[in-house]
Write a structure and sequence with these properties.
The protein has five helices and six strands. The protein is an alpha+beta fold. It has one domain. The strands form two sheets. Strands 1, 2, 5 and 6 form a four-stranded antiparallel sheet that branches. It has a two-stranded antiparallel ribbon with strand order 3-4. Helix 2 runs antiparallel to helix 3. The longest helix has 25 residues. The mean pLDDT is 91.
Length: 165
């Protein structure tokens, strides 16, 4: 996936990553799967966090029109570096580990992205790393009651993913 996100200060910046149709998305008290292109969300999200890729919308339309083509080309090139490295679910785990290091170098951390731990949990479950999957799921569910419907539903989905059903 590739998109532009709005940030504070009248800036938009590119983001890229992956959406996986087997990973649930929790929004409030609902648990949904995003199995279509229309419902896709970022499960693994790289925000550029690079002033060279920021586009200010404060100065009006003209500077934006002049800057955008070069920024889009540069951003797609950087996104493509990640996309080329991911050819299997095992590669996705490596991408998450790379992302963990990338995000720790400044800005938002890995766990500031709500979808990262649940996505990593389900990817680990798919490749048979059950203990790692459960650990990431517990990080995702931290602060929720085990009896809460979201906790019950997500744990059931992970259990099904780890057992292959």
């Amino acid at each position: 996936m590739f998109a532009f996100a709005s940030w504070k200060g009248g800036v938009i910046a590119p983001r890229w990553g992956f959406s996986f149709d087997f990973v649930p998305h929790v929004s409030g008290n609902s648990v949904r799967l995003h199995r279509t292109n229309k419902s896709a969300i970022f499960d693994l999200c790289v925000d550029a966090r690079d002033k060279a890729l920021d586009i200010s919308v404060i100065r009006g339309e003209q500077p934006l029109v002049l800057m955008a083509p070069g920024i889009v080309e540069m951003a797609i090139s950087r996104a493509d570096e990640l996309w080329r490295r991911v050819n299997s679910l095992e590669d996705v785990v490596a991408a998450f580990e790379w992302l963990r290091g990338y995000l720790s170098s400044g800005g938002l951390g890995f766990y500031n992205y709500v979808q990262h731990p649940i996505a990593l949990a389900f990817v680990l479950a798919k490749i048979g790393v059950d203990a790692g999957a459960r650990k990431e799921l517990e990080i995702f569910l931290k602060g929720r009651s085990p009896e809460e419907p979201v906790s019950v539903r997500v744990r059931k989905l992970l259990s099904e993913a780890t057992s292959g059903t």
